[in-house]
Amino acid sequence: MKICILNVLHDALDKRMYHKIARSLSAAGHEIVSIAPPAAFAAGRNQAESGETSVRFVFTPAVHSFFGRLLTVLRLIRLGLREKATLYIAPEPESWVAALLIKAATGRKVAFDMHEYVPGEFAKFFPSFLRPPMEKTTCRIMRLMGRASDLIILTRRSFEPLWSGIRTPRVVVINSNWLQPACTAVPDAVRKIAGERPTVLHQGIFGEIRGSLQLLEAMKLVKEVLPEVRCLVLGRYVYGDESAYRQKIKESGLEDTLLLLDEVPFEEVPAYISAVQVGLILFQPGLRNHELAMPHKLFDYMREGVPVIAPDFAVEVAHIVKETQCGLLVDVTSPDAIADAVIRLLTNSDEAQRFGRHGREAVESKYNWQKDSAALVDAIAALE
């Protein structure tokens, strides 16, 4: 079956849409086309091959504005119609609209991949007093769109209530990662950054709603106890002013302690994680999407046997951390709580190693993409 993945914001080499969904469906024998903005690491390529998988790219311009999103929807309709696919998969509300319009014109099938709590994400653009009614309105619109779709893919069971009473088939495919041996061959360039110093890591998109301010204050406290400590931030600073944040780092005397690194290709992330002693997840409360989050980085840390420090308010994350005993849950609004957890894990190697071992064992036995993707492949096959 020919499957076309429509992306407005997710780039061509997105962790979930390319590295997981596209590659899995290609390996299952489907022809995969991804219409998406180009990734920084996909420059000059219109095809991506990995082992038994092959995905063809059709690039659209990167989106930087609301008007750009609307324009990209029109592009997706035009380019999607040209592909004449049997199934269109949409991971965003805008691309879902495009997919449903293609279905209205051609009768082809549509699947929506819901990996964010969309009503909450949409409502956050409105003043606080308008957010509850806007969230309810968005839920109603999504349910109408869900009835017109052929499959709804969910990344967590906590999304199920939104779709109760709707006959459209649903499948839960969580954001786990490919099971592979833990990385042991750490490149010299990575070791040079981490060195022999006690090191913690935040991997992924960063900024104020991801705990940047709390981390800054926490590292001041950790440095008082462990002067050689180092914290690596691997990923783009998106939420807030990066220049202002770098200035705060300098003013705090943390230039050699809190390092902001450039984003690296998906394949290189495990080397950075394996070179550190603790993995951080610090997104802040106040957004429903954060409360229900199931971040890639949790499974990245677990796969490499690195203990995690995670938010105690995040329902899905807290469930997995408690179930697997892979780390510590803390009040991530408190720099003191973050600092205490970091110091605890960096000074208690037995406990840290035990948490890391539990995480790795959970990935090997349960939380891995090889297991989770089987449900996706079966659900897609049922649409043929």
Characterization of the model:
It contains 15 helices and 16 strands. Helix 2 (66-83) packs parallel to helix 3. 42% of the residues are buried. The chain has helices at residues 17-27, 66-83, 93-106, 118-123, 131-148, 188-194, 212-225, 242-251, 269-274, 288-291, 296-303, 315-324, 335-347, 349-365, 369-381; strands spanning 2-6, 31-36, 47-50, 53-59, 87-90, 109-114, 151-154, 170-172, 199-203, 206-207, 230-234, 237-239, 258-261, 278-280, 308-311, 327-330. The chain is α/β, with parallel strands linked by helices and 384 residues long. The strands form three sheets. Strands 3-4-2-1-5-6-7-8 form an eight-stranded mixed sheet, sandwiched between helices. It folds into two domains: 2-176 and 369-381, Rossmann fold (3-Layer(aba) Sandwich), CATH 3.40.50.2000; 188-365, 3-Layer(aba) Sandwich (Rossmann fold), CATH 3.40.50.2000.
Keywords:
globular, 2 domains, Rossmann fold, alpha/beta, six-stranded parallel sheet, 384 residues
CATH fold topology of the largest domain: Rossmann fold
How many helical elements? Answer: 15
Biggest pleated-sheet summary: 8 strands, mixed
pLDDT < 50 stretches: none
CATH H-level superfamily title of the largest domain: Glycogen Phosphorylase B
CATH uppermost class of the largest domain: Alpha Beta
Overall tally of structural domains? 2
Task: Using the alpha-carbon principal axes, give the shape.
Answer: globular
| Strand runs, count | 16
Topology record:
Blueprint: E1 2-6, H1 17-27, E2 31-36, E3 47-50, E4 53-59, H2 66-83, E5 87-90, H3 93-106, E6 109-114, H4 118-123, H5 131-148, E7 151-154, E8 170-172, H6 188-194, E9 199-203, E10 206-207, H7 212-225, E11 230-234, E12 237-239, H8 242-251, E13 258-261, H9 269-274, E14 278-280, H10 288-291, H11 296-303, E15 308-311, H12 315-324, E16 327-330, H13 335-347, H14 349-365, H15 369-381
Parallel strand pairs: 1-2, 1-5, 2-4, 5-6, 6-7, 7-8, 9-11, 9-14, 10-12, 11-13, 14-15, 15-16
Antiparallel strand pairs: 3-4
